[in-house]
Amino acid sequence: MAGQPGAVSRMKHIPRTRLHLIAVAWPFILIVLLQTALATFSLQVTSSLRAFVTGESLWSKGQHDALYYLNRYAESGNRAFVTRFHQAIAIPLGDREARLALEADPPDTRAAFAGFLKGGNHPDDIPNVIWLFRYFRWLPVMADCIDDWRTAEGALMQLLPIGEAVDAASHISEADRRDIVRQLDEINVLVTPLTKRFSDRLGEGTRQVQTVLLASNLAMALVFILLTVWRLNSFLVHRRDIEARLSHSAHHDDLTGLPNRRLFEESLGRALDGSSTRHALMFIDLDQFKAVNDNGGHAAGDELLRRVSRDLGKAIRGTDLLARLGGDEFGIVLPHCAPEDALRIAMRLREITEAIDFVWNGHRYAISASVGVVHLGEHTYTLQEALRAADIACYMAKEKGRNRVHVYETTDAAQTQFAANLNWVQRLHRALEEDRFLLFSQPIASLDAGKERQDHCEILLRLEEDGKLLAPGAFIPAAERFGLMPAIDRWVVSHALDIIGRRKGAVSGTYSVNLSGLTLKDETFLPFLREVLKRSHVPAEVLCFEITETSAIENLDEAIAFMNAMRAVGCRFALDDFGVGMSSLTYLKRLPVDYVKIDGSFVRDMLTDKADWMTVEMINQISHLAGRKTIAEFVENAEIRKALCVIGVDYAQGYFIGRPTPFQADEAVVVPLRRADVA
């Protein structure tokens, strides 16, 4: 009993696949072993029977020759026939010794081997004869053969006294010869039928054994075939079951048991291909799922999804297909559903979701859903167009305040703009994956004629599509709306540092890089920056990150914490587009920036608009009082540059200073000298 736990432990460590393989294969292995054993046994029996028949043939020939040579001696008196008689009689006598040795208790196999060897049997056949005699003498056919052998042997033994008398006499008379011939005739009459019966029974027994062996092999083969058919059928049944489960798993969600996106799209495709297009499509997105997942953990999120799945499934029609599309998003295909019915069902589903009382670990969560509805009968949709329309409708429901239903309308201007922005999401993802963004740089020049010049530029972003360069204004709004700016900012920083690290004299310049408001909230950006700085070997002091005053003020505390952390690394900051929101003057002293960039809308018209001039002058004075240097944007001619020098602005940026050019590693930034610079 003490050894059982160890055995159980070892069993636990056997891989399940191996146990399953053994469970499937063991009948076949057993049949193969049995078939092999039966075949081996059949060969052994056949070989033994062959050896026994050969021995019987030698025995019959020996007794026949003994009678013959003794008879020839009686007829001729030639002593040479006596010698041949003894040689012939030695064969059945040897077999007799072997039989008596095997019939002894216990059997003497060594003596039996010697006896059969005297009987003229081949040494390789003798073990088979002994094995057959010892273990199968109880069979009726074998027992009868041995009885005939023993009886014939008894009659044959009568030759021994005649042989002894012949050996003793040097000469025999005519009367003695006639007497010997008479005795030999009597013995021959007695022995011949016995010998024939022995031979016949042995042949019959051999045929019976061969028939039994053949039947056994055929029976075993039949069992093997039946087992194979049974196992194959079981395997096919099991395979069909697995295929059914795999098919169900491939088309259904493991968590909720609902159809998945694949089955959903197949069903929607069939609905769109049908003759009737009076169908509806819905996307449902849970509004508070992230809060449940973050606060209650994934177990809470999973339970909420199961609960929503059950409640929504009970509220739809029997012909409708409810599917989980991924995350917290569900889709419904409503065949043969009028627009008013679709809207009514959507409102009911929203109400059912809102009414869910979800409690997890003592905390109650408010649940709601945004529902997008598409009437497929109002327009000819492809599968992708229908999915995109439902996606946009669901997004619009969220944009308008969540917990509401939005019906897709092709004439809705806000929806059209949203769709355009949504299209940018795919294009921007593709641009990031294919590395199709390009970096440009625009010089920033010092307006202090006596100050030593250093490389100073702003790194700008462009997007290349179909051979055209797109300015940031074309895609940044969509990137900000859909949360792609942190990824784009990372791309800009990593590629900019790679180029800066390969430029001559780059370590003494200043390179301004724009950061979005979303990046200010990204806690992982600082570790990322440390890593790319380390990899590029560029000192952090050459980087100046530009953030807009709007994003800084909207997230003031986060912006200050972010900027202080970045400044601790060695980076500098510039406040971009300053002056658009004048309330930012109040926060200027709190923001740890090095530069204030005066918004170009004031600079561009400052020579013709006195209010713009005064605004530029005021921003410059306040920034200097706060210890910040100023940079004027949109400096497009020499007159504006001179006016900025009069006001005392520190730096200028614009087409007059230099147009954006590709940012490359083969040369450092060159700020072009103009005669106006000297004036």
TrEMBL record:
Keyword Transmembrane: yes
Domain of life, per lineage: Bacteria
Domain called GGDEF: residue spans: 277-410
Positions in coiled-coil regions: none
Swiss-Prot/TrEMBL keywords: Membrane, Transmembrane, Transmembrane helix
Pfam families listed in its UniProt record: EAL, GGDEF
Record-annotated EAL domain positions: 421-674
Stored InterPro entries: Cyclic-di-GMP_PDE-like, EAL_dom, EAL_sf, GGDEF_dom, Nucleotide_cyclase, Rev_trsase/Diguanyl_cyclase
Transmembrane segments: 21-43
SUPFAM superfamilies for this protein: EAL domain-like, Nucleotide cyclase
GO molecular function, one term: cyclic-guanylate-specific phosphodiesterase activity
Protein name: EAL domain-containing protein
Species in which this protein is naturally found: Shinella kummerowiae
